[in-house]
């Protein structure tokens, strides 16, 4: 799943290619991907792209005041074309859920692999009308998001810090992969309770959050959309690296698997050398 750094790189990539171009066509390959009915997708046709922005993990393409907003979810992605294929999208016949054509011949497809569909697109006059955007917490890279603001988000939360970092209503843009990376950098157990963290641990976690995301944004910057997934994997220290040596201490990276996801961590760096039980009912580590 693309998270804040990849979505920001994707936004920058699209802005450099779309701003000033006119939308000439919007084709739907999946009716289910479109979560709104008014304005219709045709409302985008004939108007110029004024800007591209990010809201958490949402991409917002501003087409003369009408916004095409999309969320790539777990298996969605964007395929850019300098020259869009002339063939029309056939609904239900390919992984293409939505295609946008521009007046210089370029454009993109939104695609989704697998049977579990989560890709979502919205056509709105105000991005805040998208429920997922309206409920977003603060952006962790916003200039005004300081350590005090972060501490206030954690205060009193008797939930695991891993879940707090991933909760989009608490913090916008961080998902499963970067929450693993942030916690590893902060030397914290993913099952530590947010409310139990000392002020020193909160400060360390805040610095790890900012530096990890800033480094990932920098690493993704300037890369074409097709390279962002591989760049994300290459930058991970623990996430997706079960059984590999921790780059900090050399211990083997461990995993806790759940029904539809997993987390990775280093026991030596994060849990005092104690492996976490690999089942959903694991006890929280203090």
From TrEMBL:
Pfam families: Fapy_DNA_glyco (PF01149), H2TH (PF06831), zf-FPG_IleRS (PF06827). The lineage of its organism: Bacteria, Bacillati, Actinomycetota, Actinomycetes, Micrococcales. It comes from Ornithinimicrobium pratense. It catalyses: Hydrolysis of DNA containing ring-opened 7-methylguanine residues, releasing 2,6-diamino-4-hydroxy-5-(N-methyl)formamidopyrimidine. This is Fpg/Nei family DNA glycosylase. Keywords: DNA damage, DNA repair, DNA-binding, Glycosidase, Hydrolase, Lyase, Metal-binding, Multifunctional enzyme, Zinc, Zinc-finger. Its cofactor is Zn(2+). Residues 237-271 form the FPG-type domain. Belongs to the FPG family. The keyword Zinc-finger applies. GO terms for biological process: base-excision repair. GO terms for molecular function: 8-oxo-7,8-dihydroguanine DNA N-glycosylase activity; damaged DNA binding; DNA-(apurinic or apyrimidinic site) endonuclease activity; lyase activity; zinc ion binding. Residues 2-119 form the Formamidopyrimidine-DNA glycosylase catalytic domain. SUPFAM superfamilies: Glucocorticoid receptor-like (DNA-binding domain), N-terminal domain of MutM-like DNA repair proteins, S13-like H2TH domain. The keyword Nuclease does not apply.
């Amino acid at each position: 799943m693309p998270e804040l750094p990849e979505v920001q790189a994707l936004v920058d990539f699209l802005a450099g290619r779309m701003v000033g171009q006119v939308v000439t066509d919007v084709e739907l390959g999946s009716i289910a991907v479109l979560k709104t009915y008014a304005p219709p997708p045709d409302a985008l046709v004939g108007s110029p792209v004024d800007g591209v922005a990010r809201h958490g993990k949402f991409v917002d393409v501003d087409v003369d005041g009408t916004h095409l907003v999309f969320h790539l979810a777990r298996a969605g992605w964007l395929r850019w074309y300098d020259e869009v294929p002339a063939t029309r999208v056939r609904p239900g016949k390919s992984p293409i859920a939505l295609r946008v054509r521009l007046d210089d011949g370029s454009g993109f497809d939104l695609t989704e692999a697998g049977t579990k569909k989560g890709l979502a697109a919205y056509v709105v006059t105000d991005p805040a009308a998208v429920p997922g955007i309206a409920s977003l917490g603060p952006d962790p890279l916003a200039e005004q998001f300081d350590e005090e603001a972060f501490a206030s988000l954690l205060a009193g939360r008797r939930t695991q810090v891993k879940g707090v970092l991933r909760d989009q209503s608490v913090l916008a843009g961080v998902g499963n992969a970067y929450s693993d990376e942030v916690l590893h950098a902060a030397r914290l157990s993913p099952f530590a309770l947010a409310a139990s963290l000392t002020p020193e641990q909160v400060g360390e976690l805040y610095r790890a959050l900012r530096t990890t995301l800033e480094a990932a944004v920098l690493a993704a910057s300037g890369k074409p959309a097709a390279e962002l997934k591989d760049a994300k994997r290459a930058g991970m220290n623990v996430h997706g690296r079960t059984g590999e040596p921790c780059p900090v201490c050399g211990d083997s990276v461990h995993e806790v698997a759940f029904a539809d996801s997993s987390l990775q961590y280093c026991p030596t760096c994060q849990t005092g050398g104690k492996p976490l039980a690999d089942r959903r009912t694991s006890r929280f580590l203090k």
